[in-house]
Amino acid sequence: MSAADSATIQDLIYKYFQIAKSKEIEGIPDFFDDRFTKFGDSPPYDRRDLERALMLEQLQFASISDYDFKIEDLKVDVVGDAAVASFVLQSTGMIVDDYSFRGTAINNKSRVTMVFKKDKKGGWKMLHQHFSKMPG
How many domains does the chain have? Predict the structure, then answer.
């Protein structure tokens, strides 16, 4: 396992969630491999392909205000050109409905697994995300 690859992936994970704070949602596609899929912890609970995941991620990241996150127990296992990261994500903020001018507070704690693949240029791209809310 390469410590440099592990550190790179950890940095990518933090940068990914930072997008919800910075609102630079046009950068979301840069994190994903063309074969990306996702199981989320909020509706819809289907497996999302790249196109659907991008649309929903951009909508969610654009609709949240006062967003903050904390990553706990982050573990990255690199095996050749693949890596699996697992962690607990605590996220807070306000989902704003621009049509009704109402907001819904969020305070979620989820278990997260992300699968990465090294691309031909030596960078890392996400192949899959799986979120599941923790009880309580």
Answer: 1
